[in-house]
Amino acid sequence: MLQEILRIMDINKVIIIAEAGVNHNGDYGRAVEMIHAAKEAGADYVKFQTAVPELVISTFAPKAAYQKETTGDGESQLDMCRKIHLRLEDYAPLMEECKRTGIGFMSTPFDLVSIDCLAQLNMDWWKIPSGEITNLPYLRKIGRLGGKIILSTGMSTLDEVEEALKVLEKAGTPRKNVILLHCTTQYPTPYEAVNLRAMNALATLGAAAVGYSDHTQGIEVPVAAVALGAKVIEKHFTLDRNLPGPDHKASLEPGELKNMVDSIRHIEAALGSGEKVVAEAERPNIEVARKSIVAAREIKTGELLTEENITVKRPGNGVSPMLWDSVLGTSAVRDFAPDELISL
Description:
The protein has helices at residues 2-8, 28-41, 53-56, 65-71, 77-84, 91-101, 112-119, 136-143, 158-171, 198-202, 220-227, 254-271, 286-289, 324-327; strands spanning 15-21, 45-50, 104-109, 125-128, 148-152, 178-183, 209-214, 232-236, 292-295, 310-313. It is an alpha/beta fold and 344 residues long. Helix 9 links the parallel strand 5 (148-152) and strand 6. The longest helix has 18 residues, at 254-271. The protein is 35% helix and 15% strand. Helix 2 runs parallel beside helix 6 (91-101), helix 2 (28-41) runs parallel beside helix 12 and helix 11 runs parallel beside helix 12 (254-271). It has an 8-stranded parallel sheet.
């Protein structure tokens, strides 16, 4: 059933999303550079964040602890976000740049106006961030659009994820159109807080598939998530980790992003079909590595074959040692020199 859903949704490989987010720091030219860097790294999509800060953040909203660490506490969360977001009119040309570059475009809306803006662009996927999973009006608005959705589930219980899915379904988007991403909303995420096995719990909710949105440092955890069955991987990246802004320190630089993509593709290829069969790559080594029944010493025609005059050695292109009991006590059909393959 899962494979049929994935086929219908045209997911024939792990989807790798390079999360540019707001790491362009509000600079359109840098956003374009990030599109090209994501393409060069081999990502399937580059994803931005679309918001009208005044519609997302109240004047009373504090910064998160990690934001204070990376940007200081001399300004409000609202003032910080005003400086690092692009204009709504920037996203259509960014999507066109993605088309010219040959990489998919995505952007996460953080408010209702931003949903309207992005709805004009006919994105392949809607990406709902963890912070909106309890935002009923927001979920209804995206659900009514009936598109394919990737839903991050950081800071959520399984019951809250189920409630969000019900809202999307009631609005018009069936859960078979939704991929759930396990996520831990902390930047960077300590390894002991990752809990990758929570993907198994998400898989019980009947969505199309599960994936993982990563905020750890390094690439090991998203690669491990693929080995555990993740069909989507999302990871923040930046052109330079030393740039000012809240998310750069927990992001990969372009070379690291490429290493992650390559590693995921290697693991994806290595997972295989799940059948225990002889791989074509190893078939030529059967003769080299396995053994056959051979003469332990010189044997004359008609001599009985015993444990004293036969043994087992490489190569494996003769009589299999699994027939040992059947060979014992039979007569030699001809003369055999030491180490010569026994024939019956």
